[in-house]
Specification:
9 strands, Immunoglobulin-like, 9 helices, three-stranded mixed sheet
């Protein structure tokens, strides 16, 4: 009888130890769109990480820990770590898109297909837009993919107050802590620099090198030299070719002197 009790004790001890053991779990997120930067939070252990561009991640966990998968564009998903997951050391997660649907709206009169009849009955008015129906909209320059990613990562306030209740914007905070926001800001700035440099090359090359001659193989090097100055992007954003030309002339003079001194 004592031997049976001893064996039972060892069995329950081994189960307890396996349950309390922390393991690095690898995982893969599957979704219809972007997989980079999805937050993986171990709520139980207060651990977090983010997915790479392929949706892969790795996080420490124990049996019965709760894993929260969170992203603005997908429905949040909670997963309880099982013994099977700990044994295989792998989690497969399928996410569903957040879908905001509007009811179908018919604007204006139903057309008959008779052009002259439809024109007479149309009571034509200025085109309807999102302001007319109370829907927020954007009429500015379309955002690039990197700009949209930055807006998605850093949108909103850190804390929202609803009466006496405060809600923390965990998505924004985690992006700041993980460095994703900083990385995206740097990528957006580099993208803007490249766009400004292309504009300068296209619009101002002839005038610039008409004033100060420069070897053909050094022209591209000059524009990279000029774009490294923080004032380059600021000047380019003024949307003034005159101010940009004045800035580039000063930089070209400095670059020309630098090249001449290195030749000597």
């Amino acid at each position: 009888m004592k031997r049976t009790n001893y064996i039972s004790f060892l069995f329950f001890l081994s189960v307890f130890c396996s349950s309390s053991q922390t393991t690095d779990l690898k995982g893969q997120v599957f979704a219809n769109a972007e997989l980079d930067g999805i937050h993986i939070l171990n709520i139980s252990a207060e651990e977090y990480t983010i997915t790479n561009r392929l949706g892969a991640f790795e996080i420490s966990a124990r049996v019965n820990d709760t894993i929260l998968v969170s992203s603005v564009q997908y429905i949040p998903k909670k997963i309880v770590v099982s013994h099977e997951m700990m044994t295989s050391r792998f989690i497969k997660i399928n996410l569903e898109d957040r879908i905001n649907e509007l009811d179908e709206v018919v604007v204006g009169k139903v057309l008959t297909g008779d052009l002259m009849s439809d024109i007479k009955n149309s009571n034509a008015k200025p085109e309807i837009n999102f302001y007319d129906v109370g829907i927020p909209g954007y009429t500015g320059k379309p955002k690039t993919q990197k700009q949209r990613r930055l807006i998605e990562a850093d949108a909103g306030k850190f804390v929202y107050y609803y009466g006496l209740v405060a809600t923390i914007n965990i998505h924004k905070i985690l992006n700041r802590i993980s460095g994703r926001t900083k990385k995206l800001k740097r990528l957006v700035r580099l993208e803007e620099q490249d766009a400004c440099m292309d504009k300068a090359i296209s619009n101002l090359s002839d005038d610039l090198f008409g004033h100060i001659e420069l070897k053909e193989e050094l022209k591209t090097e000059f524009f990279y030299y000029a774009s490294e100055d923080p004032k380059f992007l600021e000047t380019c954003k003024l949307e003034s070719d005159i101010k940009l030309f004045e800035f580039l002339i000063d930089k070209l003079l400095a670059f020309h002197i630098q090249v001449a001194s290195s030749d000597d």
